[in-house]
């Protein structure tokens, strides 16, 4: 079984796509009991460089502050220090995903995964109080809020 899985990985990796269609396929792939897939993406300038921030989420029941059985994935190609990124994500999650409830139930199965690749070539953001960090925070908040609203208004 493990060998079959390992042998299939190159094919799976080669089938990945950085396109909008690929992002949509990923959002559909993580749905379980969801009625619709939930994804959003924006492009903006941070420090004069074009960057992208995208997000997708799944979950349709047991949605409550502290996320319950919700899975969120947020990505950006901005270059940001990991400690700064972690703080930014926590701020954004508290402003968005931790503000909703669907049925009042919570569980231990909640996660937001946030990845920053740095592939945009932007200047590194290493201070949460700098102008570029504030620009990226606004993008992150916009994506998180839009994804969160898809739980309420699919």
From TrEMBL:
SUPFAM superfamilies from the UniProt entry: DmpA/ArgJ-like
Keyword NAD carried by entry: no
What are the GO MF terms of this UniProt record? L-glutamate N-acetyltransferase activity; L-glutamate N-acetyltransferase activity, acting on acetyl-L-ornithine as donor
Sorted alphabetically, which keywords does the UniProt record give?
Acyltransferase, Amino-acid biosynthesis, Arginine biosynthesis, Autocatalytic cleavage, Chloroplast, Multifunctional enzyme, Plastid, Transferase
Q: Which residues form the active site?
A: 69
Q: Which residues form a coiled coil?
A: none
A matching Pfam family: ArgJ
Q: Which GO terms describe its cellular component?
A: chloroplast
Q: What class of enzyme is it?
A: transferase
**Family as reported in the entry's similarity comment:** Belongs to the ArgJ family.
Q: What job does the chain carry out?
A: Catalyzes two activities which are involved in the cyclic version of arginine biosynthesis: the synthesis of acetylglutamate from glutamate and acetyl-CoA, and of ornithine by transacetylation between acetylornithine and glutamate.
Q: What is the name of this protein? A: Arginine biosynthesis bifunctional protein ArgJ, chloroplastic
């Amino acid at each position: 079984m493990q060998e079959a899985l390992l042998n299939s990985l190159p094919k799976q990796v080669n089938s990945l796509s950085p396109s909008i269609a690929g992002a949509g396929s990923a959002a559909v792939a993580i749905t379980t009991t969801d009625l619709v897939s939930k994804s959003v993406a924006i492009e903006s300038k941070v420090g004069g460089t074009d960057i992208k921030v995208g997000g997708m989420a799944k979950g349709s029941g047991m949605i409550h502050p502290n996320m319950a059985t919700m899975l969120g994935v947020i990505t950006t190609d901005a270059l940001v220090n990991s400690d700064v990124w972690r703080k930014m994500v926590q701020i954004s999650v508290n402003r968005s995903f931790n503000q909703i409830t669907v049925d009042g139930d919570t569980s231990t199965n909640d996660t937001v995964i946030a990845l920053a690749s740095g592939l945009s070539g932007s200047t590194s953001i290493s201070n949460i109080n700098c102008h570029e960090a504030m620009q990226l925070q606004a993008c992150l908040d916009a994506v998180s809020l839009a994804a969160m609203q898809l739980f309420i208004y699919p």
